[in-house]
Amino acid sequence: MSDIPANADFVRLQLSASLPPPGKGARQGRWNLFSGWLNTALTLLCLYLIWLLVWPAVKFIFIDAVWTGASREACLAETAGRAVGACWPFIAAKFSQFIYGFYPEGGRWRVDLTFLLSAALLLPLLIPRLPYKGANALVFFGIFPIAAFFLLVGGGFGLPYVETRSWGGLLITLVVAVTGIVVSLPLGILLALARRSAMPAVQAAAVIFIEFWRGVPLIAVLFFATYMLPLFLPPTWSIDALLRVLVGVALFASAYMAEVVRGGLQAIPRGQYEAASALGLGYAATMGLVILPQALRLVIPGIVNIFIGLFKDTTLVLTVAIFDLLGQLRAAFADPNWASPATLFTGFAFAGLIYFVFCFGMSRYSLFVERRLCTEHSRDVE
Amino acid sequence: MSNASETAVEMTGVHKWYGAFHALKDINLKVARGERIVICGPSGSGKSTLIRCINRLEEHQRGRIIVDGVEVTDDLRNIDKVRRDVGMVFQQFNLFPHLTVLENCTLAPIWVRRIRKKDAEEIAMRYLERVRIPEQAGKYPGQLSGGQQQRVAIARALCMSPKIMLFDEPTSALDPEMVKEVLDTMVALARDGMTMIVVSHEMGFAREVANRVVFMDEGQIIEMNEPEAFFSSPQHERTKLFLSQIL
After folding, report:
1. Which of B80, B108, B143 lies at the smallest CB-CB distance from A379?
2. Which of A57, A223, A309, B8 ranks highest by number of CB atoms within 10 Å?
């Protein structure tokens, strides 16, 4: 056993044991920020640039900001006796306008309740650990939209009717964005499947639909829906202006969604279709159980990209006289009672923050989902 | 149709073209119930195309294919019927990567045969035991070795209780050390009397379990014989050349 056989060049007598990997303390984990005069100079330059950008923002938003007051007087440098930053009392005074628009004050609990319901139904849907996903999804996608419609519009169940023209602010932003998101995903999937259909008529219809909506700018869609569609329709058909915009935005987003989903479908190897067919699965089962679950998780980044884009594109409804968050902001600027040099910047800082919170939230959540689906399949997981 | 109960697959004068390329030329093959056929031949000779026509993964343009008394035609109901009774194992395994091993095995029984989930899982575990990997039931295909994946693929096909099993080069994508575990599974299946049509170059397997070996080249059946005679005294020049190169 211990002798090396004479008829081999080399024979291992004992297998070496596995060693732990070299730790973070080794060379490759080291920060290289100050590892030479050039790197040090670049680091200092970058720190200086960051300082140039961040310090004025911090100064404006926090240090020089005015926190209390009842009118523009509080936010003027003359009355404050110092340089003045953000005028937060302006936001406080106009806050309910930013959230509800001109929704009647007595009915605002209905908006609150809708927000609350959607949060209560959406959060458990997003947290993977919680049970009853199927029932939860059914309620959120099936029952909640109807409930929200009656809550917000009213006209039944003892709730007075509120016309959509008086809606506004964050309410409009969220209604447009959520409708767009919830409608565009299933519609986009159907369009993508239709575009890959073997039936020429179905395929052609999907191609025409997708290329039409991708070919026109969203603003044109909104203008058409708002100002031109009523000219073509018989005068007795009065379709709600907001509804027309919602349909336009949803169809517009579905066309983009369809192409993203199609990208995912194309990435699935033919063998998956063949295995499903060989097992006797029909078209619906093959797509629903085998192909789409794989294709959709491949294109999560693209899907969330569209969601985020859609959320920000809702600001375009301002061009057709629907006053979303940004629209209400601009309307509030016109109030002479709050006209001060800082008002404009404060308002946009506030709006920017709100948009950022929603978009960043979507982005982080999609990363979380991706990582979770990814670890599920990696080889190293035990 | 006269002796449908005895004949598992009957191909009569089958032709197939890919565009202008004539991929299968006048294929006549009758496979009896319980018979094991091994098809071999050089690459591009139409072996895979032939067995993929049996469950209509490929469409033949001329001739008749009758599987267990059902003719394979454009009629979707016939195709469904055939696919329920014909299991298939692929070179690249083609397991569903987003489903666990157990879910891979229960998917079709639940959605095609409408078996209750609990019963389907019981059946699946029985077949996973038979291919000797019940302990991997909760894992995803990506966590298994090639040999294990192919055994799962065999179990998945068996869960539909097929009458005929098609194997399309089941060991060609495997590391040499894993070929044996898959072949052992297939030998065991053959011993149980399953009707099998196997595209393979595993001549040891052909010798051990095949009733007949079919040699194909250029889309045609060149020679067909019992394994002993096929290997010891091949008749056609092309067969001799082929055997001399692989044995």
Report:
1. B143
2. B8
